[in-house]
Amino acid sequence: MHGWILILAGIVAGLAMEASAVKLFLEAKSHSLGFLCVLLAIHVAACSLFSFQIYAASTRLKYSSPKNWLLASLMSTLVFPVAGIVCMFVLFLYTWVLPGEKTGAYEEYEKYITYDFEPEEKYMPSDKLLQGIGEELEVTPLVEVLAEESANARRGVMNVIGKLPKKDAIRLLKIALNDKSVEVRYLAASELSKIEAEFNENVFMARKETLRNPDSADAHLALANAYAEYFESGFLDDFASRYYMDLAAEEYRVALRMGGENIQILNYLANLDLLSSRYEDAYAKFKRVTEADPGNVYAHVGLINTYYEKGEVGHAIRHAKETIGRMPPSQGIMREIVGYWAS
């Protein structure tokens, strides 16, 4: 509370200094160069004091870009005496007080919903049911927050977006791009730009490593994973997604050829075959994985989906019934998926 009193006092002091400078200018009978320099100094001091208080307030409210508030405030107040301070103050009040409660965005969001998740494995099987259940259980509560009237609650989602897996974060950010709040749209666009830059950096560094060590299976596997993460993120359009999927498949094949038999890579390639509608190739690979590693539930789910896509629903159900009998209750969502087919 003491901090807010100081911020309010600073804002009032800035307004008073600006008003006094304007009053002196209007009442002066002559305007010498020295007199104008003094007024300019008072104006700059008032704008700086006011803008710093806006920065301090946005920091206390845990806005994601306090520095942007500081820069915007300095630019508008310095260029437009009095009017700039008044307009900036009203704008800040609008984004804070008017749309919602007078609580910090992050605290308000934390009271509304607590989000927790278990990190997903790199390149999950391309199972539509798995994707649907995962998104509903983990992301839907956040989507509901984005539908709230309170702009603070919606900004709260932006503040915790970094905790989410990238695929979920991108889905939420795309929704937020259509938000009625300018700030929420700006934050969403900014976060999407950061994620895209991170994807590009990961691909660039992995590709650089394969050029440095062209005979390294691990380097090619890392590059394939970078491609796969990019195309399955939901960030790309269909054409670009297909392009990166083909690049990932090629790098997985190179890694498999260099490193010898690798169940994990074989499972990745099986999923890519399934995504590309190469069902016979997917079937052969999933069978090899399940025979070599009977406990690999993702390969079993992939095999079930392959049966279904081939039109062999009976085989899908039969394999699901065989698989669920070996699955412990702790396997959660995957057990629900297999149980769905088994029933």
Concise overview:
With 343 residues, the chain is mostly helical.
Describe this protein's structure.
With 343 residues, this protein is mainly alpha-helical. Among the domains are: 2-98; 275-343, Tetratricopeptide repeat domain (Serine Threonine Protein Phosphatase 5, Tetratricopeptide repeat). The protein has helices at residues 2-27, 33-60, 66-79, 83-96, 105-112, 128-138, 140-146, 151-159, 166-176, 182-212, 217-231, 238-259, 263-275, 279-292, 297-309, 313-324, 332-342. Helix 9 packs antiparallel against helix 10. The chain is elongated and about 95 Å long. The relative contact order is 0.06. Residues 98-139 have low confidence and may be disordered.
Low confidence ranges = 98-139
Q: How big a fraction of the residues is strand? A: under 5%
Q: Can you tell me the overall shape?
A: elongated
Strand count, sense and closure of the main sheet?
none
- Fraction of residues in helices? over 70%
Rg result:
28 Å
Number of helices: 17
Terminal residue distance: 58 Å
Mean pLDDT: 76
Elements, N to C (H/E): HHHHHHHHHHHHHHHHH
Strand elements, count: 0
The chain-level structural class is mainly alpha
